[in-house]
Amino acid sequence: MLKLSRLALIFGGAIALGACQQSGTATHSTSLDNDAQKLGYTVGYDMGESMKSIGDMIDLKSVEAGLEDGHSGTKAKLDSAARQKIKQEMSQKIREKQVADRAKAAETNLAASEKFLAEKAKEDGVKTTASGLEYKIDKAGEGATPGPDDSVTVNYKGTLPDGTVFDSSYDRGEPITFGVKDVIPGWVEGLQLMKPGAKFTFYIPPKLAYGERGAGDKIGPNQALAFEVELIKVENPKAAEAQPADTAK
Predict the structure, then answer these.
(1) CA nearest 198: which of 143, 148, 118?
(2) What 3 state SS string does the chain have?
(3) Phi, psi (5° rounding) for residue 147?
(4) Which long-range contacts (CB under 8 A, 24 or more apart) does 41-48 make?
(5) Rounded to the nearest 5 degrees, what angle is found at the Cα of 163, between the Cα atoms of 137 and 146?
(6) Rg of the Cα trace of the chain?
(7) Buried residues in 46-66 as b, exposed as e (16+ CB within 10 A)
(8) What string of pLDDT tens digits covers the 249 residues of the chain?
(9) Rounded to whole angstroms, how far apart are CA atoms 57 and 239?
(10) Structural domains of the chain ordered from first start
(11) Cβ neighbours, 10 Å, residue 193
C-alpha cells in the first residue's frame, strides 16, 4: 500500500513525465555525461515507475504549476490543510484501487489456473494426488524418498501457466539445498514422491502454492505453478549429527 510520504514522492515525480505529455512523445534525448545528470535521470525514472498505476489520477500540468510555485516561493493556491486533505483522499482511493485490482486478478488467475490444471491432468503420464497436486515422472530415480525432516538438493525451473519463467536454479548455474518441509505444500508433497536422480514435473494448484496472497511481483494471487524438478541429493541432518557418536561406540 502507498503511504502518504510515498504518495507525495510520486506526485512530485509526475513532473518527470510532464514534458513527455506536452511534446506528445514519451522519449527524451537526455545527456547522461555527469553524475548530476545520471542521478536526475535515475530519480525521475524510479518515480515514473512508481506512478504507473496512478498516472491517470494526476494532472501533470497542475504538478508543474505546483512545482514552479513551490520552488519560486509563490503563495500556494491550496493551503497546507487542503493539500494534506487531498493527499489523504488520494491515498484512500489508491488503496481501494489496489484492493479492487488484486481481487480482479485473483478471480482471473483462478479461472486460468483451473483451466491449465484441467488440461494438464489429461496429458499422458500425468498423475493427480488426493490433494490436487499433479505430477509427471520424466525420469525415475533410485534409492529412498526424502521425508519431511530431510534436506534435499535440487535443480528446478518454475513457470507460470503462460510459460513465463519466474525462477530457475539452472539460470543461476547452481542447485539449491533446503529442508523438505520449508517450502510450499505442493513441493513438500511432490518431493516425497521422488528418489535421488529423478526428474519430475509438478503442476501445483494455487492452494498448494501461494494461494490468494501470491508472491512478490512475479506470482500473482491464485496462480497455478509448474516446476521442472531434478532431485540431486537427499540428506538427513539428524542422522548426520548422530553419525560421529555412533562411530565412536
Answers:
(1) 143
(2) CCCHHHHHHHHHHCHHHHHHHHHCCCCCCCCCCCHHHHHHHHHHHHHHHHCHHHHHHCCHHHHHHHHHHHHHCCCCCCCHHHHHHHHHHHHHHHHHHHHHHHHHHHHHHHHHHHHHHHHHHCCCCEEECCCCCEEEEEECCCCCCCCCCCEEEEEEEEECCCCCEEEEHHHHCCCEEEEHHHCCHHHHHHHCCCCCCCEEEEEECHHHCCHHHCECCCECCCCCEEEEEEEEEEECHHHHHHHHHHHHC
(3) -105, 175
(4) 43/13, 44/13, 44/16, 45/16, 46/13, 47/9, 47/10, 47/12, 47/13, 47/14, 47/16, 48/13, 48/16, 48/17
(5) 30
(6) 26
(7) ebbeebeebeeebebeebbeb
(8) 444 444 444 444 444 444 344 434 445 557 899 999 898 888 778 877 776 666 677 777 787 788 788 879 999 999 999 999 999 998 898 899 889 999 999 999 999 999 999 999 999 999 999 999 999 999 999 999 999 999 999 999 999 999 999 999 999 999 999 999 999 999 999 999 999 999 999 999 999 999 999 998 899 999 999 999 999 999 986 665 555 555 444
(9) 60
(10) 4-77 (no CATH), 120-240 (3.10.50.40)
(11) 17
The reported pTM is 0.70
- Three cell numbers, residue 90: 488520494
Instruction: List CB contacts of 106: < 8 A, sequence separation 6 or more.
Output: 212, 220, 221, 222
Residue 154 C-alpha cell reads as 535440487
